[in-house]
Design a protein that fits this description.
Elements (H helix, E strand, L loop, with lengths): L3 H18 L4 H8 L3 H9 L6 H10 L15
Helix pairs in contact: 2-3
């Protein structure tokens, strides 16, 4: 069974991968979702994570199923 730290890192890695797949910088994404670059950076390092509503919004923006945020490698 996966512990909280492992899950946090998987989500962080997927957030970064999905942003990069879209060709966006952290600043660009911040402008789209109304968050500071520093906030996005902390998410992508796994220091904090977006709340459930923001995670859903990001998945929708990236055209991903929400469960892909929780899977290693971001694959279904």
């Amino acid at each position: 069974m996966m512990d909280d730290n492992e899950l946090r890192q998987i989500i962080a890695d997927n957030l970064k991968r999905f942003r990069e797949e879209k060709g966006l910088s952290q600043t660009d994404l911040g402008k789209v979702i109304g968050k500071a670059k520093t906030t996005i950076s902390t998410w992508e390092r796994g220091e904090s994570l977006p709340d459930a509503a923001m995670l859903y919004r990001l998945a929708t923006y990236y055209d991903k199923m929400i469960d892909m945020m929780y899977k290693e490698g971001g694959e279904s």
